[in-house]
Automatic annotation (TrEMBL):
Keywords annotated in UniProt: Carbohydrate metabolism, Hydrolase, Polysaccharide degradation, Signal
Source organism, top-level taxon: Eukaryota
Gene Ontology terms: biological process: polysaccharide catabolic process
Database matches in SMART domains: Glyco_10
Record-stated family: Belongs to the glycosyl hydrolase 10 (cellulase F) family.
TM segment ranges: none
Organism: Urochloa decumbens
Name assigned to this protein: GH10 domain-containing protein
GH10 domain ranges (all copies): 208-505
UniProt KW Iron-sulfur keyword: no
Molecular function as annotated in GO: endo-1,4-beta-xylanase activity
Signal peptide range in chain numbering: 1-29
Amino acid sequence: MEAAAASLLPPAWKVLILVLLLLTAGSLSLRASADGVRYDYRAYTECKPNPEPALYNGGVLRWASKITDFRTEDEGNYSPAFVLYNMSAAIAYSFSCWVKIEGPASAYVKAKILTLENAASQCIGNALVRNDCWSFLKGGFALNSSSQTSVLYFQTASPNASMISIRSASLQPFSPDEWNQHRQDRIQLIRKRFVNVHVSNSNGSRVVGAKVAVHQITRDFPFGSAISKNIIGNKPYQDWFTKRFNAAVFENELKWYATEPSPGKEDYTYADQLLQFVQSNDVMARGHNIFWEDPRYTPAWVKNLTGPQLRTAVAARIESLLSRYKGDFVHWDVSNEMLHFDFYEDRLGSNATAEFFATAKRADPLATLFLNDFNVVEACDDLSSSADAYVAQLRRLADGGVTFEGIGLEGHFGKPNIPYVRAVLDKLGTLRLPVWLTEVDIGSSLGQRAQAEYLEEVLREGFAHPAVDGIVLWTAMGANATCYQMCLTDANFTNLPAGDVVDRLLEEWQTREVVGDTNDRGSFNFSAFLGEYKLVVTYQNLTSEGTFSLARSDDTKHINVRLAGPVVV
C-alpha cells in the first residue's frame, strides 16, 4: 500500500518518531513468513540495464507502507522508505533490492533500519551504485529488541546524488528454526556426501547381513587457528592444537617487521620452527603476510626508503620469503588490508600491487594468492571494505594483469549481524573464487559467554555457506596465556567457553564412525562428512579392508567390496 508522500525534516528524533507513529494508525501488521520458504542465495556484482525480479516476490514488503520522500537528522540523502510493523527480535530478515542514483557517476548507498521506540538506526546493507544501470544491494539484520514500528530507508553520503531509485525490493523473514534448517540443508549438500557400499562374494553374488564399519581418518574442510612462537617446545600446547586443527597461520612470525627488523638482517628462526611443527603434524599452513599496507606495521626502516630504494627492498622481500618457503604454504596473503591502507601503492604507483602478485606467482606458482581485509563481513558501515569495494579492487587489479585466486575475510567481530554476513558471502560467492574466513575472533569486551555465543553463530554460518572453503581462528596463545581478543583455553589448556564451542562443533562436523549391516540388496547406505575414511567389511570368517576419499560432489559415492578380494572404489 502507498502512504501519502511525506517530507520529514525534524529538529530532533522525537519529532520524527511522532510523525511516523501517526502513519501507523489503522495499518496492517507485518505478515509472518510463509512456511517452507527457502533462503535464496542469489546475488549479483554486475550492474544491469534492468533490475531482476524481486527475491521471494518481495516478501513482506508487498504489504508495507511506503513513504516516497524521507529525511532524518543524520548526514546523507534519502529516498523511498518502507514503514514496517510488529518486527520481532527472534527473526532473521533478509533484504535485497536494485538501486540506481541520479547525479554522480557512482556513489555508495546504504540500506538502514530505524526502530522508532528507541530511535536506533543500523546499517543492513550497502552497494556501490551507478547512474547508468541498476546495482544489486543485498543485506539483512536481526533486531536487538522487538519493534512495533520501524522504517527501512536508504542513504547516500554523496552531496550530488539528487535521487535514489529502488526497484524489486524484498524483505523476507525467517524464524530461527528456518534459518538453522537452511544451514543444515547446505551442509548436507556441500560438506557431506551420500555413500553406497555394495558387498558381494567371490562369485559376484550380493551378500546380505555383512558387517560394515567406516571410520573417518581425516577431515576435508580446513578448520584451524593462528599459532605463535609460544607453541615452540610447548608439548601441552602442541598436543591440544594438533588434536583439533588441520590448518594454521602464523600470527606474526612471517610478517616483514619480524623477519627483517633491520635492512639485510633477516631472521627466520621462529618461522622455520613453526613450519617444522605444522608439517610434522600434517597441518596445512597459510602464509601471512608478504606485505601489510598499514604503515603502523611496516618496518621502520622501510618507511624511510625512497621510491627506487623501496622498489628494490620489496623485490628482495618477495624473493627471500618465497624462495625460502616455496611449496610450503598453501596460501599467501600478498597484500594485507589494502582496502583500508595504501602504503606501497602511494609510494610505488597504482600498479605496485599487481607487480607484487605477478612476482609472487612466479616465485611460488603452486600457492594460492589472496587479498585479505577486515570489516568486509563484520561491519556494514565501513564502506572502504564493503563487498562491492572488494570486488572493485579485484577488478582494478585484474585490469593490471592479476589473476586472482582467493578472497580473505578476517572476521574480527563484535556482535555479528549474521543475516548480513550471509548476504556478503552470497555476493562474494558469485566471483567463484575460494573464500576463507582468515582471522576469526569475537571482541574481548563482550565477555567470555557472549564471545562463545557469537563465535558459534559465525562458525555455523561460515561452515554452512557454499562460498566458504576454510576457517581459521585468530586465537594464538601468547605469553601469560594472553590472546589478541579471544582465547580458547586458559594457561592449563582447560577450555574456556569459546573452546567448548570449538570442540562441540568439531565433534558435530565429522563422522567418527558409521556401522551397520548390508540390506537385502547387499548394500549399506549412509551420509558422511567429506574426508578420508577406513572401511572394514566382515562376513562370517571373511574380512575386507580398504580406504576411500569423499570429495565434494552431488553424486552418491559407490564402493564395491568383493569379499576375499580388494575394495574397489
